[in-house]
Amino acid sequence: MLEPDPRTALATLAAARGDSLAALSAMLGRNAAYLQQYVRRGSPRVLGERDRRLLSDYLGVSETTLGAPADRPAGFRIRKLNVAASAGPGALVDGEIVLGTDTLDPGLARKLRLRDGQAAIIRVRGNSMEPGLFDSDHIVVDTADRTPRAKGGLYVIRIDDAVMVKRVALVRGALVATSDNSDAAAVPDGAIAVIGRVVWQMREPR
Known about the structure:
21% of the residues lie in helices and 32% in strands. By secondary structure, it is an alpha+beta fold. Strands 1, 2, 3, 4, 5, 6, 7, 8 and 9 form a nine-stranded mixed sheet that branches.
């Protein structure tokens, strides 16, 4: 039995959930007529990768149902956490809340040596790690790598209930956290719990 074409599939799935195409367009950050024009007029001819991924996650179907090439390698799924890794005094959090998932290029995931279920994307807040990291940057954290070494590296850490991103090194058997911005406030005192190593950063165009 042939699968319905992506436009028919989208219209059927939306109707089954009781969602209008206008509402789904708004979810994508598009104008209200965007998906209606796609379904009824064939414009755009195909959905963009971002739109297709968001819709497939929301509707609970594979991207191929919405027009992704069947032979395309699957992207590396990575959790997006509702935790701001502060580059300032520290973000107080009660826990890690999963906002959803995003997709990394499989080749990049292999290059970064990421493992399924052991990586996350979080947002940076503050300026204490400038010029390397700016407020609102997003970072990929390898949560399998929690062992800073003598030469140091960028890590997301927790001190008491504060989560932050700092440069962490092993100095004479103890972990030491510092900021890159010399004008930043001192790192809070307390035991350092390492959440993971920063292996990639993403910055929106300014």
